[in-house]
Fold this sequence. Notes:
Blueprint: H1 3-13, H2 21-26, H3 28-65, H4 70-76, H5 90-95, H6 98-125, H7 127-142
Helix pairs in contact: 3-6
Amino acid sequence: MKLDEIYNLWAEDSEIDTTVIDQVAVSIPKLHHKYMQILSKERLQLRKLEADYKQLYHLKFEYFMGTLDRETLEEREWKPNPRAILKSDIPMHIESDQDIINLTLKISYQKEKSTVLESIIKIISERGWQVRNYIDWQRFKNGT
């Protein structure tokens, strides 16, 4: 799911129809469940990307060391590393590698989705208080 899709979904679900406030209160668990499912899927995707990063980092380390086997080079369509690199300089080369940068950006995007979903779930958890405050305000306005 894309971040914009999450924002659009929340834009619809975040509105509270005060004419049916009882239904709003009853729908809180269902809404919580909906976003928990989305968050779980997004967190699992994040874990997969992080595991992919570790594997790619290891491959890039071997690549820059010059120890990556020819079979893997061909499989990944990488050309052999033509220059000798000091072992202490390898992290710098890995961090500036385009494959690593692309995967790092995907991980950042995935983390942002998880953060947004966690925030939404926090707001949903507080929705019961919002409903109660609205009801109390209406009672106060009506003098009851």
